[in-house]
Amino acid sequence: MRVLSVCAGGAQEVTIGGRRVRTAIGKRPVQGAVAVRELGLAGDEQADPSVHGGRSKALYLYPGEHHAFWRTVRAQARAAAWEDAIAPGRFGENLLAEGLTEDRLWIGDRLRLPGCVLAVSEPRFPCVKFNHAMGFAHAAKLMVQSGFCGAYLAVIEPGEVRAGDTIELMPGPREVNLRELFRARARA
Questions:
Q1: Which among 66, 84, 105, 139 would be 20 to 30 A from 131, CA to CA?
Q2: What is the dihedral of CA 149, 155, 157, 162, to 10 degrees?
Q3: What is the distance between the alpha carbons of residues 159 and 26, in angstroms, rounded to a whole number?
Q4: What is the DSSP letter of 176?
Q5: Cα–Cα distances in Å, from 120 out to 8, 16, 115, 139, 152?
Q6: How many Å apart are CA 8 and CA 49, to the nearest integer?
Q7: Which band of pLDDT confidence, cut at 50, 70 and 90, is reported for residue 81?
Q8: How far apart (Å, rounded) are the C-alpha atoms in residues 141 and 171?
Protein backbone atom coordinates (compact mmCIF):
# COMPACT_ATOMS: atom_id res chain seq x y z
CA MET A 1 0.00 0.00 0.00
CA ARG A 2 1.36 3.34 -0.98
CA VAL A 3 0.61 6.93 -1.93
CA LEU A 4 0.62 7.31 -5.71
CA SER A 5 0.06 11.06 -5.73
CA VAL A 6 -0.50 13.92 -3.27
CA CYS A 7 -2.91 16.56 -4.60
CA ALA A 8 -3.98 20.00 -3.44
CA GLY A 9 -5.68 23.03 -4.91
CA GLY A 10 -7.74 26.11 -4.40
CA ALA A 11 -11.42 26.70 -4.99
CA GLN A 12 -12.58 28.19 -8.27
CA GLU A 13 -15.85 29.26 -9.80
CA VAL A 14 -17.43 27.15 -12.54
CA THR A 15 -20.81 27.13 -14.24
CA ILE A 16 -22.94 24.04 -13.55
CA GLY A 17 -26.51 23.91 -14.83
CA GLY A 18 -26.45 27.63 -15.60
CA ARG A 19 -25.36 28.56 -12.05
CA ARG A 20 -21.98 29.83 -10.88
CA VAL A 21 -20.67 27.64 -8.05
CA ARG A 22 -17.38 27.36 -6.19
CA THR A 23 -15.59 24.03 -6.32
CA ALA A 24 -12.21 22.71 -5.27
CA ILE A 25 -12.68 19.26 -6.80
CA GLY A 26 -9.96 19.80 -9.43
CA LYS A 27 -6.82 19.23 -7.37
CA ARG A 28 -3.32 19.02 -8.87
CA PRO A 29 -0.37 16.79 -7.93
CA VAL A 30 2.16 18.40 -5.61
CA GLN A 31 5.85 17.53 -5.81
CA GLY A 32 7.90 16.76 -2.72
CA ALA A 33 6.79 16.73 0.89
CA VAL A 34 3.50 18.43 1.77
CA ALA A 35 2.62 19.46 5.31
CA VAL A 36 -0.30 17.53 6.84
CA ARG A 37 -2.10 19.72 9.34
CA GLU A 38 -5.03 19.04 11.64
CA LEU A 39 -7.47 20.49 9.08
CA GLY A 40 -5.82 19.24 5.89
CA LEU A 41 -2.90 19.64 3.53
CA ALA A 42 -0.93 22.85 3.24
CA GLY A 43 -2.04 24.67 0.10
CA ASP A 44 -5.38 22.88 -0.14
CA GLU A 45 -8.83 24.39 0.09
CA GLN A 46 -12.44 23.18 0.27
CA ALA A 47 -15.11 25.25 -1.46
CA ASP A 48 -18.03 24.20 0.77
CA PRO A 49 -16.99 23.53 4.38
CA SER A 50 -20.55 22.44 5.24
CA VAL A 51 -19.90 19.14 3.42
CA HIS A 52 -16.10 18.96 3.00
CA GLY A 53 -13.23 19.64 5.36
CA GLY A 54 -13.12 19.99 9.12
CA ARG A 55 -11.46 17.60 11.53
CA SER A 56 -13.22 14.42 10.37
CA LYS A 57 -12.80 15.26 6.67
CA ALA A 58 -9.34 16.80 6.70
CA LEU A 59 -8.11 14.72 3.75
CA TYR A 60 -9.76 12.65 1.05
CA LEU A 61 -8.22 9.38 -0.15
CA TYR A 62 -9.22 7.73 -3.41
CA PRO A 63 -8.09 4.28 -4.64
CA GLY A 64 -6.14 4.31 -7.89
CA GLU A 65 -7.60 0.88 -8.65
CA HIS A 66 -10.86 2.57 -9.70
CA HIS A 67 -9.35 4.64 -12.52
CA ALA A 68 -9.90 1.91 -15.15
CA PHE A 69 -13.62 1.80 -14.27
CA TRP A 70 -13.96 5.58 -14.62
CA ARG A 71 -12.03 5.70 -17.92
CA THR A 72 -14.42 3.08 -19.29
CA VAL A 73 -17.66 4.74 -18.14
CA ARG A 74 -16.47 8.18 -19.26
CA ALA A 75 -15.78 6.77 -22.71
CA GLN A 76 -19.19 5.09 -22.81
CA ALA A 77 -20.83 8.36 -21.78
CA ARG A 78 -18.86 10.06 -24.55
CA ALA A 79 -17.27 12.31 -21.96
CA ALA A 80 -13.80 11.26 -23.10
CA ALA A 81 -11.93 8.99 -25.42
CA TRP A 82 -11.10 5.51 -24.11
CA GLU A 83 -7.43 6.48 -23.84
CA ASP A 84 -8.16 9.63 -21.86
CA ALA A 85 -6.17 9.43 -18.67
CA ILE A 86 -7.83 10.37 -15.44
CA ALA A 87 -5.32 12.68 -13.83
CA PRO A 88 -4.60 12.56 -10.11
CA GLY A 89 -6.87 15.02 -8.30
CA ARG A 90 -9.85 14.65 -10.68
CA PHE A 91 -11.98 13.16 -7.88
CA GLY A 92 -10.98 15.93 -5.48
CA GLU A 93 -8.68 13.53 -3.66
CA ASN A 94 -5.73 14.65 -1.64
CA LEU A 95 -4.20 11.18 -1.67
CA LEU A 96 -4.41 8.86 -4.64
CA ALA A 97 -3.46 5.52 -3.10
CA GLU A 98 -2.80 1.95 -4.11
CA GLY A 99 -4.07 -1.03 -2.12
CA LEU A 100 -6.73 0.72 -0.02
CA THR A 101 -10.07 0.03 -1.67
CA GLU A 102 -13.26 0.68 0.29
CA ASP A 103 -13.88 -3.01 1.08
CA ARG A 104 -10.55 -3.11 2.97
CA LEU A 105 -11.23 -0.02 5.10
CA TRP A 106 -13.23 0.27 8.31
CA ILE A 107 -14.21 3.35 10.27
CA GLY A 108 -11.47 3.90 12.84
CA ASP A 109 -8.70 2.19 10.87
CA ARG A 110 -5.44 4.09 11.09
CA LEU A 111 -3.09 4.67 8.22
CA ARG A 112 0.52 5.06 9.33
CA LEU A 113 2.70 6.83 6.81
CA PRO A 114 6.38 7.69 7.35
CA GLY A 115 5.52 11.29 8.26
CA CYS A 116 2.00 11.25 9.74
CA VAL A 117 -0.88 9.11 11.02
CA LEU A 118 -4.40 9.37 9.59
CA ALA A 119 -7.71 7.69 10.51
CA VAL A 120 -10.58 6.56 8.30
CA SER A 121 -13.59 8.64 9.38
CA GLU A 122 -16.35 8.31 6.76
CA PRO A 123 -17.15 7.71 3.09
CA ARG A 124 -17.42 10.54 0.59
CA PHE A 125 -20.81 11.21 -1.02
CA PRO A 126 -20.84 12.68 -4.52
CA CYS A 127 -22.74 15.75 -5.64
CA VAL A 128 -23.44 17.60 -8.89
CA LYS A 129 -19.89 18.96 -8.80
CA PHE A 130 -18.64 15.39 -9.25
CA ASN A 131 -20.78 15.03 -12.38
CA HIS A 132 -19.25 18.24 -13.71
CA ALA A 133 -15.68 17.11 -12.95
CA MET A 134 -16.23 13.74 -14.63
CA GLY A 135 -17.92 15.29 -17.65
CA PHE A 136 -21.22 13.42 -17.64
CA ALA A 137 -24.53 13.65 -15.78
CA HIS A 138 -24.65 10.16 -14.25
CA ALA A 139 -21.22 10.08 -12.58
CA ALA A 140 -22.57 10.58 -9.04
CA LYS A 141 -25.16 7.85 -9.61
CA LEU A 142 -22.42 5.48 -10.81
CA MET A 143 -20.31 6.27 -7.75
CA VAL A 144 -23.25 5.26 -5.55
CA GLN A 145 -23.94 2.09 -7.56
CA SER A 146 -20.30 1.01 -7.66
CA GLY A 147 -19.46 1.90 -4.07
CA PHE A 148 -16.25 3.51 -5.36
CA CYS A 149 -16.52 6.42 -2.93
CA GLY A 150 -13.08 6.77 -1.35
CA ALA A 151 -12.51 7.70 2.28
CA TYR A 152 -12.35 10.85 4.30
CA LEU A 153 -9.50 10.89 6.79
CA ALA A 154 -8.91 12.62 10.10
CA VAL A 155 -5.38 13.66 11.06
CA ILE A 156 -4.22 11.83 14.19
CA GLU A 157 -0.55 12.86 14.03
CA PRO A 158 0.27 15.86 11.81
CA GLY A 159 3.47 15.83 9.81
CA GLU A 160 4.07 15.45 6.10
CA VAL A 161 3.24 13.22 3.14
CA ARG A 162 4.74 12.67 -0.29
CA ALA A 163 4.09 10.53 -3.36
CA GLY A 164 5.69 7.12 -2.92
CA ASP A 165 5.14 6.98 0.86
CA THR A 166 4.26 3.52 2.11
CA ILE A 167 1.04 3.13 4.05
CA GLU A 168 0.63 0.69 6.93
CA LEU A 169 -2.99 -0.19 7.67
CA MET A 170 -3.53 -0.47 11.43
CA PRO A 171 -6.94 -2.10 11.97
CA GLY A 172 -9.49 -0.25 14.09
CA PRO A 173 -12.44 -1.84 15.90
CA ARG A 174 -13.77 -3.53 12.71
CA GLU A 175 -17.39 -2.66 13.49
CA VAL A 176 -18.35 -0.55 10.45
CA ASN A 177 -16.93 -1.20 6.98
CA LEU A 178 -16.51 1.92 4.82
CA ARG A 179 -18.31 0.51 1.75
CA GLU A 180 -21.17 -0.91 3.86
CA LEU A 181 -21.66 2.45 5.58
CA PHE A 182 -21.63 4.22 2.20
CA ARG A 183 -24.29 1.90 0.79
CA ALA A 184 -26.45 2.10 3.91
CA ARG A 185 -26.39 5.93 3.88
CA ALA A 186 -27.00 6.01 0.12
CA ARG A 187 -30.20 3.95 0.59
CA ALA A 188 -31.49 6.23 3.36
A1: 105
A2: 50
A3: 24
A4: S
A5: 19, 31, 17, 24, 6
A6: 16
A7: low
A8: 30
Q: What is the pLDDT of residue 175?
A: 95
CA–CA gap between residue 83 and residue 5 (Å, rounded): 20
pLDDT digits (tens, 9 = 90+) for 133-160: 888 889 999 999 999 999 999 999 999 9
Does position 85 have pLDDT exceeding 90, yes or no? no
Report whether 32 contacts 164 (CB < 8 A). no
Contact 97, 165 (CB under 8 A): no
Sign of CA dihedral 107, 24, 63, 147: positive
Could you list the beta-strand ranges (E) of the chain: 2-8, 12-16, 19-23, 28-29, 34-37, 40-41, 59-63, 95-98, 110-113, 116-123, 151-157, 159-161, 168-170
User: Which domains does the chain possess?
Assistant: 2-187 (2.40.33.20)
